[in-house]
TrEMBL record:
Organism: Capsicum baccatum (Peruvian pepper)
Record-linked Pfam families: PTR2 (PF00854)
Keywords per UniProt: Membrane, Transmembrane, Transmembrane helix
SUPFAM superfamilies named among the record's database cross-references: MFS general substrate transporter
Membrane topology, from the record: Multi-pass membrane protein
GO molecular function, one term: transmembrane transporter activity
Protein name stated in the entry: Protein NRT1/ PTR FAMILY 4.5
GO cellular component, one term: membrane
Domain of life: Eukaryota
Length: 539
């Protein structure tokens, strides 16, 4: 299903910047910003898909619902790209699309984003749910393998998208490219529906966000309770512990005053995950440049491959080919060898895998800047177009980085999340992408605003329509330096993070036995058991 769905989605990721500039007549900044906003929204909405599949609908039904929305978005894109009267005329300004044409454009684009995001918020967890949960070591190995093959599937789909669909869009017609995308999306929904009789289905439970909110409210209401605790206990987590303290004489406290141990531990887990999530956003800001600025660079380079001209938006097929070859090698060679040395079921830990990707992304940006210097020098001083395939160096390195980081994050968030929050938690991998894309838009505007004050022509590094006169290379190097600083930040949080125990959250004590509690109103503490009952235990 994801192989087929990714054909259209990734084709749009790579070609929308060309569509916005050549058909909708945005300038360079406008086309890049609209593309990253589209992608940021798509990946942000994975949270919505994960939330709904955890709380209200099964994961399969959630995927089908959002798949229908994506089909509607593609249908509107086909209509607007087919009829020229629905497209704006060139105007020489930063944006030329207004009124009803703008409404149709943004409705179609963001319906597609909503559908794609919702699907990605529930499908990874649907697949991982199919494994037995009894043997934690075997289960960890199986889930790791699943996510590797999941990545391979979306990589193959992406390879088809950035070659076949992008070529059809740019050489035959944009409407024809969108038709291929809608057919693939529909076929994918049919395939995933065929598995319905065989799936292990997790029944939706109480809203995970509501459970989190109850803990925060209860902790705030019990703020005045005083704990005498060991020195190694975090202050924030002790504040959360107050949500599970039952006050004397109030045996019938509601959920917004007294929470179970399970709820409090769930919030602690999510809290520990957040610094890891935020430490990966800079890498995804770098990824956004490969899908916008680097594609625009490619339009100014020599696309010849023998007698065939390669569309610039198809150049990402190079890292995708690398990934398609490396994922089986990683699964069948790297993991077993590392398992012999580390004893870890997945060879290396999830967070070590993420860290490798962060380092490679910084290297990729440094190389991207060097390639842009060469391209501009050849064009401006020798009137010669550099081969498009010079872009393959930083694309290939970033592809390897993505192989490590994306799967590492999905494994990490699924394995560490409470059972009732696995769709929502897995969608955090895509939330990192979303924040990265939005940061890209913000960085572009901020860099232009600041650097325009110091350049002789009063234009920022990325302003204007002529890439031969601006300074994309400096922007790449800025991101490379930022990525290295971010890696140092990530190492700190990696060392700080403590993996949860293999046992269910319900069986882990909330308060350590050596805690002594001094409270103005109570000498009792609420302890939650695995079947959800509450017991009181005298201190």
């Amino acid at each position: 299903m994801m192989l087929l769905d990714n054909i259209g989605f990734v084709a749009n990721m790579m070609s929308f910047v060309v569509y916005f500039s050549s058909v909708m007549h945005f300038d360079i900044t406008g086309a890049a910003t609209n593309t990253t906003n589209y992608l940021g929204t798509a990946f942000l909405l994975t949270i919505l898909g994960g939330f709904i599949s955890d709380a209200y609908m099964t994961r399969l039904n959630t995927a089908l619902f959002f798949g229908i929305l994506q089909l509607l978005g593609y249908l509107l894109l086909i209509i607007q790209s087919h009829f020229q009267k629905l497209q704006p005329q060139p105007c020489g300004e930063s944006t030329c699309v207004h009124g009803g044409k703008a409404l149709l454009l943004y409705t179609s684009v963001y319906l597609t984003a909503l559908g794609a995001g919702g699907i990605r918020g529930c499908i990874p967890a649907l697949g991982a749910d199919q494994f037995e949960q009894n043997d934690s070591k075997k289960n960890s190995k199986n889930i790791s393998s699943f996510f590797n093959w999941f990545l391979l599937s979306i990589t193959i789909g992406a390879s088809i998208g950035v070659t076949v669909v992008v070529w059809v869009s740019t050489n035959v017609g944009w409407d024809k490219g969108f038709i291929i995308s809608i057919v693939c999306c529909f076929a994918g929904l049919c395939f995933v529906s065929m598995g319905k009789p065989f799936y292990r289905v997790r029944v939706p439970g109480e809203s995970p966000l509501l459970r989190v909110l109850q803990v925060l409210v209860a902790a705030a209401r019990n703020w005045n309770i005083v704990f005498h605790i060991p020195n190694n206990s975090g202050k924030l987590f002790i504040v959360l512990d107050k949500a599970a303290v039952q006050l004397e004489g109030t045996n019938k406290q509601g959920k917004w005053r007294l929470c179970t141990v399970t709820q409090v531990e769930e919030v602690k887990i999510l809290t520990r995950m957040m610094p890891i999530l935020l430490s990966t956003t800079i890498m995804n800001t770098c990824l956004a440049q490969l899908q916008t600025i680097s594609v625009q660079e490619g339009t100014l380079m020599d696309p010849s491959l023998g007698k065939f001209d390669v569309p610039s938006a198809s150049i990402p097929v190079i890292p995708l080919v690398f990934m398609s070859l490396l994922i089986p090698i990683y699964e069948f060679l790297f993991v077993p060898v590392m398992r012999m040395f580390t004893g870890h079921p997945t060879g290396i830990t999830h967070l070590q895998r993420v860290g490798v990707g962060l380092v490679l992304s910084a290297i990729s940006m440094a190389i991207a800047g060097a390639v842009e210097v060469k391209r501009k020098n050849e064009f401006n001083h020798h009137n010669h177009r550099t081969s498009l395939f010079w872009l393959s160096f930083h694309y290939a390195i970033f592809g390897i980085a993505d192989m490590f980081t994306l799967v590492g994050l999905m494994e990490f968030f699924y394995s560490e999340a409470p059972a009732g929050m696995r769709s929502l938690s897995t969608s955090f991998s895509f939330l990192s992408l979303s924040i990265g894309y939005y940061l890209s838009s913000a960085f572009v505007e901020l860099i232009n605003s600041i650097t325009s004050k110091f350049t002789s022509n009063k234009q920022g590094w990325l302003q204007g329509r002529d890439m031969n006169k601006n300074h994309v290379e400096l922007f790449y190097w800025f991101l490379a330096i930022l990525s290295l600083l971010n890696f140092g930040n990530y190492v700190f949080w990696d060392n700080w993070y403590k993996y949860k125990k293999d046992g269910p959250v319900d069986k882990q004590k909330l308060l350590h036995p050596d805690f002594s509690v001094t409270m103005s109103m109570t000498s009792q503490q609420a302890i939650s058991t695995s079947d959800g009952e509450r017991k009181t235990e005298q201190n």
